[in-house]
Amino acid sequence: MDKPYFEEQSYCTLIKTKLETVRFLQDYSKSLQMMKIENLHFETHLN
Amino acid sequence: MEPQLEDSLLIKRYVSGDEKALEALIDKHNRRLSSFIYSKVRNQSITEDIFQDTFIKVIKTLRKGAYNEEGKFLPWIMRIAHNLIIDHFRKSNRMPMFEGADTFNLFALMGDEKLDAERQIIKDQIDSDLIVLVGELPEEQKEVLVMRIYKNMSFKEISENTGVSINTALGRMRYALINLRKIIQENDIVLTN
Lengths: 47, 193
Hints:
heterodimer, A: alpha+beta, two-stranded antiparallel sheet, elongated, B: mainly alpha, 0% strand
């Protein structure tokens, strides 16, 4: 009787973004300042 | 292992100024989002870029106060990533990437859509031959064909202009093409570039 499954199975690859990218996002968030003037939003980045 | 907090709580804390909440949010969804992006683009660097752009949009939206928490944070960021992936593929189709080769020819990159002189002459000849052939058609068929092909009108517009139904306009177009093919065949005309 034939086997009901393939011999070679593909496995789903789970990956993760590098730590540098995560750190960049954190720094980006910390430096981001939002100003709302009337109905407009202005973004600035502080050093 | 610390229990993972709900997205809504993390978002609330982040909007209140707690940067650690952002770190927790990113960490919580990192693997799921990165794997999703990678499954589409199959490139680690591009995955990193799209992941970064996704969360930049998230950060900006949260900081503007434009996000309504309805328990759908993950579908939201997946949708942002999905749209960025589409943008990536659109851009890469417009700007093909060339791998370095030993015999690299810059002129291979500098494409020009214009026809060369010979092909332009042939095209001009074909266009003028076609105009003569179209002139041989019955008036009502010629009228529909000219409106459709040369004036790029829709059949709805043609029907409004000529005062006939859309089906009649379609029928006239069909017969125009059949008759054109007949004329070309009977006269052994060659219309190819």
